[in-house]
Amino acid sequence: MDYLSGLNEPQRKAVLHTEGPLMIIAGAGSGKTRVLTFRTAHLIEQGVDPFAILLLTFTNKAAGEMRHRIEQVIGKQAKNIWMGTFHSIFAKILRFEGEKLGYTSSFSIYDTDDSKSLLRSIIKEMNLDDKVYKVNLVLNRISAAKNKLISPQSYFNNEVIRNEDRMAKVGEIGAIYKTYALRCFQANAMDFDDLLYQTNILFRDHLDVLNKYQHKFKQVMVDEFQDTNVSQYLITKKLSAVNQNICVVGDDAQSIYAFRGADIQNILNFEKDYPDLTTIKLEENYRSTQAIVGAANSIISKNRHQLQKNVFTSNEKGEDIEIIRATTDSEEARLIASSIFEGKQRDGLNGSDFAILYRTNAQSRSFEEALRKLNLPYKIVGGLSFYQRKEIKDLLSYLRFVVNQQDEEAFKRIINLPKRGIGDTTIAKISVTAAENNVSIWDVVSNIQQYSGKGAQAIENFADLIKSFKIMVEVDKKDAYDVANHVAKASGLLRELYEDKTVEGLARYQNIQELLNAIKQFVDSEENEDKSIATFLQSVSLLTNADQEEEGDIKEKVTLMTIHSAKGLEFKRVFLVGLEEDLFPSQMMLASQSDLEEERRLFYVAITRAEKRLYISYAESRYQFGRLKTCEPSRFIDELDPQYLRISKLGGKKEIQGFKPVQKVGGFAQKTPVNQGQQLVQKAAPSNYQHISSSNFTPSNPLELQVEQRVEHQKFGFGKILRIEINGAERKAVIAFEKGVGEKTLLLSFAKLMVIG
DNA sequence: TTCGGCTGGTTTTTT
DNA sequence: ACCAGCCGAA
Question: Which pLDDT belongs to residue A657?
Answer without folding.
Answer: 35
